[in-house]
Specification:
Elements lengths: L3 H12 L11 H26 L7 H29 L1
Helix pairs in contact: 1-2, 2-3
Length: 89
């Protein structure tokens, strides 16, 4: 529940950036918001699986490794999207 408030604020900022006519958001920003939303929700799924501790997820280190990989993937994807988006603009 607490994690939904920041995403609602981000979506409001992206969907309705302002009242000025020149307040346009580049297309790559929508891709960034969507991909980060999906990847950050994967952290919650991993946490849920870790707390259940069934099967492969009973090993605490497995969850920590998945957190590390998810963090690396999310940050790398964000960097490449920003890099590609600014070059295209």
């Amino acid at each position: 529940m607490a994690g939904s408030i920041p995403w609602i604020v981000i979506l409001i900022g992206v969907i309705a950036p302002g009242n000025t006519s020149d307040a346009t958001i580049p297309g790559f920003v929508y891709g960034i918001v969507i991909s980060l939303f999906v990847l950050f929700n994967c952290f919650g799924i991993v946490q849920w699986k870790q707390y259940r501790a069934k099967g492969k997820w009973a090993d605490y280190l497995r969850g920590e490794r998945v957190y590390i990989v998810l963090s690396l993937v999310a940050k790398t994807l964000l960097a490449w999207q920003i890099f590609a988006g600014t070059l295209a603009s």
